[in-house]
Amino acid sequence: MEEGGPTALGPALLVATTMAAKVRGSKVILCTDGMANIGMGKLDNYHAETEAEDAAQFYEDVGDTAAQNG
Questions:
Q1: Which pLDDT belongs to residue 46?
Q2: Using CA atoms, how far apart are residues 39 and 54, in angstroms rounded to an integer?
Q3: Alpha-carbon distance 55 to 36, whole Å?
Q4: Average pLDDT over the chain, rounded to an integer
Q5: Eight-state DSSP code of residue 11
Q6: How many beta carbons lie within 10 A of that of residue 14, not counting itself?
Q7: Over the range 24-43, which residues count as b (16 or more CB within 10 Å of their CB) and which as e?
Q8: Is this prediction's pTM over 0.90?
Q9: What sign does the dihedral 61-12-50-56 (CA atoms) show?
């Protein structure tokens, strides 16, 4: 199996957790065919070290918000 093309993992995760937050106790199951490499939270092809830090912070923030919303 080989992945190909862009994977917009960050935006998908953000939308899914926002939708799940409407019903307390919901769960998000994330399946992907590759690394997040485009959009918010991309994990490769950094143009600056701050982009790596921003990506890590993005996923922490999404996780924190999801936890707060049950």
A1: 67
A2: 12
A3: 10
A4: 87
A5: H
A6: 20
A7: eeeeeeeeeeeebbbebbbb
A8: no
A9: positive
Residue 8 CB burial class (10 angstroms; 0-12, 13-18, ≥19): middle
For residue 49 the two structure tokens come to 């070290």
Looking at residue 19, its pLDDT comes to 95
The count of other CB atoms within 10 Å of the CB of residue 47 is: 6
Percentage, residues of the chain above pLDDT 90: 46
Q: For residues 43 and 66, what is the distance between their CA atoms, to the nearest angstrom?
A: 20
CB contact at 8 A, 35 and 65: no
Contacts of 39 (CB under 8 A, 6+ apart): 6, 8, 9, 10, 11
Give the residue carrying structure tokens 């999404």: 62
